[in-house]
TrEMBL record:
Gene Ontology terms describing biological process: tetrahydrofolate interconversion
UniProt source species: Ceyx cyanopectus (Indigo-banded kingfisher)
Protein name per Swiss-Prot or TrEMBL: MTD2L cyclohydrolase
Transmembrane segments: none
InterPro entries linked to this entry: Aminoacid_DH-like_N_sf, THF_DH/CycHdrlase, THF_DH/CycHdrlase_cat_dom
Length: 148
């Protein structure tokens, strides 16, 4: 699907576009004597703790990826499409797939789920993946693990 669809990864998505912002990493002091014995994270420039909101950071990253997807599409490229193959009735796998589909939609990536029963043969599953790999509409293919 990558070669046929012209889209292979998030780096391809940003090809020709400004790269995603890189989050600044915390620099530690060069001297071991400068390290604090406190268990709180400290910045290199002050004695104050850095509070990091994972929720806020995740929202910012999602907004940025969505902008990149829309820029990609506005340049005349096909909208990225994720196909997920889900085999069996594992409740956790259904939740994981639902969350992946929701996240894809949140950033503007279209998606679909192909459900197969627990007793699907390995040969049939390989045939499905081979066909999807040749489908120019599919940018990414995920077989949800564990398989029964």
């Amino acid at each position: 699907a990558a070669a046929a669809g012209g889209f292979s990864s998030s780096s391809a998505l940003r090809s020709g576009l400004a790269p995603l912002r890189r989050w600044r990493t915390l620099r530690l002091p060069a001297s071991p004597a400068a390290y604090s014995t406190s268990s709180s994270p400290r910045s290199a420039d002050s004695d104050e703790a850095n509070v990091i909101s994972g929720t806020k950071l995740a929202k910012e990253v999602l907004k940025e990826v969505r902008r990149d997807v829309e820029s990609w599409v506005s340049l005349g490229n096909k909208r990225p499409h994720l196909t997920v193959i889900l085999v069996g009735d594992n409740p956790a796998s259904h939740i994981y797939v639902r969350n992946k589909i929701k996240a894809a939609g949140a950033v503007g990536i279209s998606s679909e789920i192909i459900l197969r029963p627990e007793d699907v043969s390995q040969e049939e599953l390989l045939d499905i993946t081979a066909k999807l790999n040749k489908d120019p509409r599919v940018s990414g293919l995920l077989v949800q693990l564990p398989l029964p």
